[in-house]
Amino acid sequence: MPRPISATLSLSALSHNLDVIRRFAPNSKVWAVVKANGYGHGISRIWKHLSGADGFALLDFKEAILLREAGWEGPILLLEGFFSASDLTAVDRYRLTTSVHSDWQIAALAEAQLSQPVNIYLKVNSGMNRLGFAPERIREIWQQLHALKQVGEITLMSHFATADSTEGVDTQVAVITQAGEGISGPRSLANSAATLWHPSTHHDWVRPGIILYGASPSGQWQDIATTGLQPVMTLSSELIGIQHLHPGDRVGYGARYTALQPQRIGVVACGYADGYPRHAPSGTPVWVDGVRTVTVGTVSMDMLAVDLTPCPQAQIGTPVELWGKNLPVDDVAAACGTLGYELLSALAPRVPVTTA
Ligand SMILES: *Cc1c(COP(=O)(O)O)cnc(C)c1O
Questions:
Q1: Which residues form the active site (predicted)?
Q2: Does residue 253 have an active-site annotation?
Q3: Which residue of 159, 176, 196, 227 sits with most ligand 1 atoms within 8 Å of its CB, as the best mutation to test the pocket?
Q4: Predicted confidence (pLDDT) per residue in 71-119, tens digit
Q5: What is the Å distance from ligand 1's center to 26 Cα?
Q6: Where in the chain is the domain with CATH 3.20.20.10?
Q7: Helix boundaries (H) for the chain
Q8: How far apart are the C-alpha atoms of 328 and 214, rounded to whole Å?
Q9: Alpha-carbon gap, residue 320 to 295, rounded angstroms
Q10: pTM over 0.90, yes/no
Q11: May I ask the CATH class of domain 11-220?
């Protein structure tokens, strides 16, 4: 029998989440963001169920080529652009849309021999200071690009740092608006948080990622609880051991958990080599035998321990959900001081994935 851990993907949840996004941004086209192998879900498994999107956005050439060769004919956007001038061969051959964020990329485009003009996402650094040109240079850069025969349509693009928090997007929006004054053509600004919470940023193309997979851009499940978004990935396993602790008995590496009273604990076939966070503290929520309980002790490579006090019927073979349909990944991530983004995209290759 195989080790009992597996990840199950609800494919209907994916297309449903895309419908929810359409309702939030009815007048915009949608880039389905599938970087990091579809946030850990596997591009080849999921893309057909997102093919109602207007395009796919990602950043690895390998992933872009996989999508093309799988049969996706529509737009593909390279969110980080090309990494060397020689990449333009693949941009041309696979008809990719590329972001442009640095001067060397413009020089490379000007030198390139292409079979057709390439569509460009001109990246404005509106305050995040990750990728992009300074806002006061945008008009000059736009003119440079516009003059090149290698360049087709130019879309102004920027990315928000705080669309999921009370700080909002106003400061960055003001920068983008000013940078783009007098420049015609499409705009693409909104990530998941802005797609849900800042409709004025939707413009021509939205770029939702995490909400396609049914997790919250803020890290708080309550923030998306009323949207109708559904979790796509359920990570489940089983109890493979039971221990009866006496007061003072300790659990796991570092002996970081001590029983204060007689306690039954279960050992789950899931550890950090499966993608479960090693830094999950005792008290991280976990769903066992239909009830929500907590982890105890340090997560090992292949196992973790859970408190069975609220689930007295649980025994070897009892199903455990690490996150998913019954336990939002956001709740697990919050207990670990991280986001659903990190947990989903870290699902380890050794975990078998099934679709439902
Ligand atoms: C990852 C990414 C997105 C999607 O972000 P979410 O928060 O997952 O919606 C959009 N735009 C860019 C440039 C990105 O890098």
A1: 35, 253
A2: yes
A3: 159
A4: 999 999 999 999 999 999 999 999 999 999 999 999 999 999 999 999 9
A5: 19
A6: 11-220
A7: 11-24, 35-39, 43-46, 61-70, 88-93, 103-111, 138-146, 170-179, 192-197, 329-335, 340-345
A8: 9
A9: 11
A10: yes
A11: alpha beta
CATH 2.40.37.10 location in the chain: 233-355
Q: How many CB atoms lie within 10 A of CB 75?
A: 17
Q: What is the DSSP string of 168-188?
A: -SHHHHHHHHHHTTT--S-EE
Q: Please tell me the predicted confidence (pLDDT) of residue 129.
A: 95
Torsion of the alpha carbons at 354, 299, 317 and 231, rounded to the nearest 10: -40
Alpha carbon distance 53, 42 (integer Å): 17
If pLDDT is split at 50, 70 and 90, which confidence band does 1 have? confident
Tell me the C-alpha distance between 99 and 120, whole Å: 6
* 140 alpha carbon – ligand 1 mean position (Å): 26
The pLDDT of residue 9 is 98
Q: Is the dihedral of CA 65, 276, 326, 239 positive or negative?
A: positive
301 assigned to a ligand binding site: yes
Please tell me the distance from the alpha carbon of residue 187 to that of residue 201, in angstroms, as a whole number.
9
> How many whole angstroms separate alpha carbon 320 and alpha carbon 293?
10
**Given the DSSP bridges, would you call strands 76-78 and 55-58 parallel, antiparallel or unpaired?**
parallel
233-355: what fold?
Answer: Lyase, Ornithine Decarboxylase; Chain A, domain 1 (2.40.37)
Query: Which residue in this structure is represented by tokens 């990944």?
Result: 329
pLDDT at residue 243, as a whole number: 98
- Kindly report the average pLDDT of the chain as a whole number: 97
Given this model, what pLDDT does residue 124 score? Answer: 97
Residue 305, CA atoms < 13 Å, CB-side half-sphere: 23
For atom 6 of ligand 1, which residue has the closest CA? 209
Give me ligand 1 centre to Cα 209, in Å. 6
Question: 28-52 pLDDT, tens per residue?
Answer: 999 999 999 999 999 999 999 999 9
Q: Which residue has the tokens 């400061």?
A: 171
Catalytic residue among 48, 123, 149, 253: 253
User: What's the pLDDT at 282?
Assistant: 97
Question: In degrees, to the nearest 5, what angle opens at C-alpha 185 toward C-alphas 110 and 183?
Answer: 80
